[in-house]
Structures are given as C-alpha cells and as structure tokens.
C-alpha cells in the first residue's frame, strides 16, 4: 500500500492509495458491484476470495440492488468491518454520469447512517463496466469530497486502486483540489 497523496480538508482526511483495497484497514471498503451482487470478477471477486464466502452469502440474501444504489454486508475475514456494495452503471446504458454519482452517494450515505468513520473507494464502473477511467475518477473523487465536507460521522475517505493508471488519475484529482484549498 502506497499513499500517493494525502489532503486535509478542515478536520477531514482524504488519501489516494495505490494498493489492494482488500488490505485497507478503513472501517468499510466499497465494492464495485453488479445489480445481482454476484461477486465473481474484478474488485468484487477479490473481496470475496480474501474476505470469505460469507460476504457472497449475505449478498445473496439482499438479492437485487438497482444501478446507482448500494447495500452493506459484513466484511468476513477482511480488516474492514463492512463492505458497501455500490452498483455503478455499465458504459453505454445511458445517464452514466448521474448513475455513477448516485452510486457513490448511496455508498457514502450508508456509511454515514451506520456511523462509519472511514471508507475506502475503488474506481467504480471503470473496469469491466467500461466507464472511461479519467471521467470516473473525476466524478467519484469530487462527489465523495463534497459529501465528506458535510458528513457528521465520516471523517476519512481513501481512494484505493491497484493499478498505476487509475491510482494516478485519482492523484491528479487530489492535486487539482489541493491547488484550490
């Protein structure tokens, strides 16, 4: 895990991290999920492989989550206590920007309502769902930071991605914000 950028926004913390989200020790990690919460590939598959099948079993009980929404389960054997399953859009389905923003907000509202203090987010929808990575990084970063500024419980957000390209895009977003602080 490598911290690429860390910002303080009033009394809140934002970190851009390159590494494996399943290794994050935030209270919750966000999973880039599909609507049926079948965690086979990508970030979702890695979370279940590392955290244990109980995450999939809890997800099966929840069933269907519409695009732009989120659901929460425990985190099995992961360092985090919770996994928040955010369902982002598939590129090309229409209204993708708003659906991605809604998925991020849904995940963060769940965290806030549960009293969670720290959350780690990946680049939702930018893998097999085909959302352009640069655009996804901008929407996810700005939406999460705006939410964080007003949050009562949540006081730390990490943007955690395993690959150089995606982690670098989030670092650029943090640098833009830093220039405005």
TrEMBL record:
Signal peptide: none annotated. InterPro entries: Macro_dom, Macro_dom-like. Residues 1-178 form the Macro domain. It comes from the Bacteria. PANTHER family: GANGLIOSIDE INDUCED DIFFERENTIATION ASSOCIATED PROTEIN 2-RELATED, MACRO DOMAIN-CONTAINING PROTEIN. This is Appr-1-p processing domain protein. SMART domains: A1pp. Pfam families: Macro.
